[in-house]
Predict the structure.
Amino acid sequence: MLLLCKAPFTAKWRDDCSESRYAESSKIMRRFSSYWLLAIFLLAIPFRGDTQETEKTEIHQSADVIYKELNGIDRSHHRQIRKTAGRQPSTASLDDLKNKYDLAPKNHQCPIYFGQANAQSRFSGSGKFSKMPLADLAAKLKAGEVTPDDVPIEFIWIDGKRVTLNNRSLTALYKAGKRPTRLIDVSKESSVQANALADALRRLEGMAGKPSTEMLVRTPGLGSDGRFREASDWDAPIGEIVSMPGDLLIEARTCDRQVGRK
């Protein structure tokens, strides 16, 4: 509200009143300007949020495109298959599976793919990392307490891709953002027992026959029937998804193009 001067009309009164009105008017203008700035800021917030959501959508869409390019199947569809059919072990014979897949070794060093629909969140009760949670091994890898050389990765060739037999070990490495460095090619049947080869190919059946650049990790929780399940149970919920690190995804795309694999 503007100041009303009520006083005898003198020169001094005129000067004092003018100064008072000027000060009051300035205060009102500053307050008015502040309101406008606040209004502009509040209007800008939703716009900024929309921009961020758009960026997230674009990133997600790019990831979907890359996944389909590398794995030959839509990512969401592949995940759904691995959460459903992937929980039911295949009973196909080894001979049928060998006729279905190309197991011939190739001459390239493209990154290693996962060969199992999903995996539990800790190692089994045998081996070097007995019962250790995958997250713990990943943390040790990040801290340098364990090196990638300490985590050997066996693989076979399936349809031109190097596919691991050590899915949990590869999950821990990729979760730590590490490249496997101790690779062991066991693709020749004389190097891998028939039962192990059959198990590997049957696991792939639960992935629609498509190796993957990501692993779905089972964690303790309620299964599809509402009952509590341990991570070792195939009906345990998926609590985490671990992907091949970004630099290896880029390398895989480049490698795919160079070898001309479809």
Summary: The first helix runs from residue 11 to 71.
